[in-house]
TrEMBL record, chains A, B:
This is Sugar hydrolase. Residues 37-178 form the Glycosyl hydrolase family 78 alpha-rhamnosidase N-terminal domain. The lineage of its organism: Bacteria, Bacillati, Bacillota, Bacilli, Bacillales. InterPro entries: 6-hairpin_glycosidase_sf (IPR008928), 6hp_glycosidase-like_sf (IPR012341), Bac_rhamnosid6H (IPR035396), Glyco_hydro_78_N (IPR049164). Residues 194-519 form the Alpha-L-rhamnosidase six-hairpin glycosidase domain. It comes from the Bacteria.
Amino acid sequence: MTQAMQRQEAVTIHKNEAFAAVAEQLKPRLIYRECSPKQIVHVIKNEHMIHGWQAEGVQNAEDLADLLFGKGEEVILDFGEHLVGKLAIRIVPVGSPPDAPLHLQITLGEMPVEMAEPFSEYNGWLSSSWLQEERVHLDVLPGILNLERRYSFRYLKLKVLDTSPKYKVSFEEISCTAVTSADRSALSPLIHTDPELQAIDEVSVKTLEECMQEVFEDGPKRDRRLWLGDLRLQALANYETFSGNELVKRCLYLFAAYPDERGRITANLFMKPQVIADDTYLYDYSLFFVATLHDYFLATEDLSTLEELWPSAYRQIELGLERLDERGIVTDDESWWSFIDWHPKLNKQAPSQAILIYNLKRALHLASLLGDERKDELEQVIGTLTQAAMEHLWDPESGYFISGSQRQVSYASQIWMVLAGVLVPEHGKELMLRLLDDENSAIPMSTPYMVHHFIEALIQVGERELAIRGMKKYWGQMIKDGADTFWELYDPKDKSFSPYGSPLINSYCHAWSCTPTYLIRKYKL
Amino acid sequence: MTQAMQRQEAVTIHKNEAFAAVAEQLKPRLIYRECSPKQIVHVIKNEHMIHGWQAEGVQNAEDLADLLFGKGEEVILDFGEHLVGKLAIRIVPVGSPPDAPLHLQITLGEMPVEMAEPFSEYNGWLSSSWLQEERVHLDVLPGILNLERRYSFRYLKLKVLDTSPKYKVSFEEISCTAVTSADRSALSPLIHTDPELQAIDEVSVKTLEECMQEVFEDGPKRDRRLWLGDLRLQALANYETFSGNELVKRCLYLFAAYPDERGRITANLFMKPQVIADDTYLYDYSLFFVATLHDYFLATEDLSTLEELWPSAYRQIELGLERLDERGIVTDDESWWSFIDWHPKLNKQAPSQAILIYNLKRALHLASLLGDERKDELEQVIGTLTQAAMEHLWDPESGYFISGSQRQVSYASQIWMVLAGVLVPEHGKELMLRLLDDENSAIPMSTPYMVHHFIEALIQVGERELAIRGMKKYWGQMIKDGADTFWELYDPKDKSFSPYGSPLINSYCHAWSCTPTYLIRKYKL
């Protein structure tokens, strides 16, 4: 209890007040919608369903007001769709006047598993405080319980922990005020001839919509933060759908407003109580500021934003280059963290090299557009780094890029080298096909984030059919497994996988999984 | 879950709007006071202490802000006095920016046992919803947690259920806004030569103060309701101390405003969401409306209130008399409930007979004052009932009043017959002394409420020294056992006794236990 905790090494933030002011002015108008539960459900064991649980409708939610709940009794409601918002519950006592408070437990879940498995047994390594469960006492009944927090859910469980022997309660009215900053009226509809792609697009759009709040959040249930890696993909999906371009601009300004003393951009920002740059810096994420700005300019042609934020972007390139060793290869040691993907054994060197090249190329494009004289220098560096990659990271014998001192072969390395255009297109195609034929030897992908890049790499090498097949196998299967919104994590071979030690804590509506709508629409799949 | 619950037999309330309006206008001004914790304590096992637990100071509460708390860590604070009020806690994160909500458990207790024994193991028969424990999630830190509910406590335990590995929290500032409608500036101090009586008086006054809110509550922790039996005693203590006579008037009007269709006054009222008469009717409590009005008039000489409420009081007498059998004895059967005392085996017939006579005598006094022509009738009935009591309930052989078909001898029967003046003073004195000499054969007293009447009966028969000794043995011992305010329940021979199955749910600041200040001051003990 009295043990002091060491704060992490202090990082000094050099706030750019002007950028912060621009971001503040761009705060979006939130759009609200009133939603009601659709069904009363039972959650039953079913080993064929994801996590082993199935929600089964048993009664229309309109019947709820007629049901009475005493000590220990509970009900599970299904809102019929994933929602992000606040809850209000009108609770009426039945019996004698309530001679003791009502003690009520409220559990919210995106998935049936959250309704079925008790949170008290959660033992994962992310904080249990993310589990959406409240206990409240109501001293005065009847009354409306307005829960102050915002939840991300489809299912709601109400359990009466206690009343008194003299009364029970009924839940007369339950409503969720759903919230988003995504404007559906701006959404161009997709009418696809392939109903499976149509469905994948719809779930993607819904996923994006739920994550579009005052910023692009990574997940409305867990983290709820603005992450640069997620932002990049959300922005891409957004340009094809809601066109909430001001929100992208706001997020770019936010990141640019809170660099550290060296100009390095944080991996993520907290928005409350005020904007705070997290003390997490990821090699790849900082670099993606360049790509995100690049994509934003391509979508909007907003030159003044580009001009204003270009120095911040260029600075990420400079810092990225500082990690190069004398060979022109990103140094791999214990001191850094590059995200790339969740796989615990994944070596980050080769994919980081590729991501550096990927962003250098976008920087070069922007420098050309802006007439920045450092253009030539960038071009030269791209050449050097590409050559270094081929010389030191390409293994001609196996035909794969290798990473780290253990010469690890991973999907991530191959995919990012393809996306970075390190190989000529024909060789990129061969590499991707080799990878597909030989899938067990490489460190696999472990997140939709990585699978997105895999699909995009297939498209880039011209394998559109393989891309579509891959998308259906992954996001299409996720829908078959019950996704209303796309999940943070999904392994078709191990559907309850969680890198956090429990699927209860996984986010089932996650920004980085919303990209199929971008891939389908952008590439007209 | 869907099982319907039968409402208790419907009682129709005939609301008197005019009386309700008077009560509403008399709503007292609440007085607020800011209080801080005094010490950090450990609660340790000590079999010599009440409930086996002792709070031991370990650090000044001012040091609290320097301590950090991570997952599973907790602190117990002692405010140094019993408080009724609302809590505010300023919570500051230490470490990286909070990347997960704080999940905090807040436990409040009047006694060390509430800090030591987990509420999850509570298995008593009163609703566990009275146990003062909250679980809250804080999404934004630093922040001030303002708990909405009012608590009754001296001790506060804060336990971090979870944060995240990246941060801990400190509790920078904790304050309680204590509330009462008792005005200390109106309190006449007592300077007693006997320090033990002085201390008993002080704790009595504090108990009364804590229970004086928008009405006289029975206990600020549990029930928090206006009970007629408690009101009568609180009013008596109040006349000698805070003189909050308007509050007594308000409570009298409240009871008179919500009779049933027969004019019967409820045992208690709920105040929220609006005034509701409980569907509990107690034979003795309804009758005590007469005594309470009588005492109020003696203290205030407020004739207009007496005139206005006299019909309500008289109606209780009429209804009380309806229970008489042909012998003039209160009928004992399965259909009624007279409170008298908590002892599970106590027969209520004889004490109820005495309480009817006790209130008849006060009604007679009021009728005389008002010139009510029914005075003579009342006088005659008192004679009849007294004679009937002597004839059918007095057992000359044992020298005790007996009650019920089993001819039960109880403290309650003897005490109330003495208080009702059924015996001539000399015989009353003999009876009380006989009872004291012979304490094991009679059904004993089980609440401070009953012990109060025992002490008053001793005073009434002139045994002032025995009364003082009894008071010290009971309330004095309660103080030695750690009472800051007097407890709802106390058995010096079985200190953890609870009629509810667990001492956790007992109220440790209870209206009916506040009477020593009345006895000491009124009778100049």
